[in-house]
Amino acid sequence: MPTIVSVDDSTVPGEGSSRLLLLVSSDNKHIVVEEDIMSRSRFISKQVEGFEATSQRHAILLPFSSFVLNKVIEYCSHYRGYYLLEDDPDAAPPGRSPVREWDQEFLDVDRNMLLRIIKAAHYLEIKSLVGSCARAIADMIRGKTTEEMREILGVENDFTPEEEHSPSSKCTG
Amino acid sequence: MSTTSFTPTVHRLPPEVLIPIFALLVGSDVPDSYNLIPYTHVCRRWRDIVTACPSLWRHVGFDVSTRWVEEILLRAQDIPVSIHSVNMLTTHHTGLILQHLPHTRHLLLVDRAEDGAGPTCRLHKQLTTPAPILESFTL
């Protein structure tokens, strides 16, 4: 569950057509962003609905760093005002839509960053970004050997020798 | 909080994030759940998540060993499946198809027997099992 703290009016400026939100990252960076930009996030939208119910302004504390949060904000800013089918609550599971060229460049990052982004996107309930990250991860491991997959994604082999050599666990085709 | 907890690993991704990744690895042109087998050999968690998710096993190709066809059908449980085969079916295979016809959504069979008397064509004549959700049947 997110932690929500009350903030002064001066902390969150503006009462314009697109209100401003205060997002606080795990490294305690305060990032002010327009509500419109973050409306792609179901999590943020639900938080905002909660604010409206109480007529109070809050900062939203998020469990990931400002570096990752800024990356997510960059994604949301790029698609501001765009309808993306995957973000529809009734859409199919993420990852089924055609690859968007911009997303490919946006996610041309190292493994750790990619994993941080998909975790943040999942937390923020941004299905389109989860889907794009899923495609990028799938592309990294498709057709690789078991050892290569472990190395690429930093996965430890936790099977016992017996399990590894068990006929029932082997792909005997 | 320890430094380790900030280290991102695939292990910490929840199943609902990992499953869409595996769903993409089933294949796109001719999806076949058999393609997932190598991913179940990477680590225990992957195996547990993949084998426990019936929707990942809904693309059943009959062009692998009978043991794996049966295993994939078992993992799919009762969810709607798509069955395809481009090789000659055995009598055992045709029995499996008839058994699972009630939860088959798509059925694609290719019979290379030139006289049209192979098991696949004979299956056509045995299709008396109810197929309430069948949307397409290609022979």
Briefly, what is this?
The complex is a heterodimer of chains A (173) and B (139). With 173 residues, chain A is α+β, with helices and mostly antiparallel strands.
Description:
The complex is a heterodimer of chains A (173) and B (139). Chain A has helices at residues 35-38, 42-54, 66-78, 101-106, 111-124, 127-141, 146-153, 161-165; strands at residues 4-6, 20-24, 30-34, 58-61. Chain A has 173 residues and is of the alpha+beta class. Chain A has a four-stranded mixed sheet. In chain A, a hairpin with a 5-residue loop joins strand 2 (20-24) and strand 3. Chain A is elongated and about 60 Å long. In chain A, 27% of the residues are buried. Chain B is α/β, with parallel strands linked by helices and 139 residues long. Chain B has five helices and four strands, in the order H-H-E-H-E-H-E-H-E. Chain B has helices at 15-25, 44-51, 66-76, 91-100, 119-126; strands at residues 59-61, 81-85, 104-109, 136-138. In chain B, helix 4 (91-100) links the parallel strand 2 and strand 3 (104-109). Chain B starts with 14 loop residues before the first helix and ends with a strand. The model of chain B is unreliable at 1-6 (pLDDT under 50). The interface between A and B is medium-sized, with 36 and 32 residues.
- How far apart are the termini of chain B? 60 Å
Low-confidence parts of chain B lasting 5 or more residues at pLDDT below 50?
A: 1-6
* β-strand amount of chain A: 5-15%
Overall shape of chain B: elongated
Any chance you could write out the topology, listing elements then pairs?
The complex is a heterodimer of chains A (173) and B (139).
Chain A: E1 4-6, E2 20-24, E3 30-34, H1 35-38, H2 42-54, E4 58-61, H3 66-78, H4 101-106, H5 111-124, H6 127-141, H7 146-153, H8 161-165
Parallel strand pairs in A: 2-4
Antiparallel strand pairs in A: 1-4, 2-3
Chain B: H1 15-25, H2 44-51, E1 59-61, H3 66-76, E2 81-85, H4 91-100, E3 104-109, H5 119-126, E4 136-138
Parallel strand pairs in B: 1-2, 2-3, 3-4
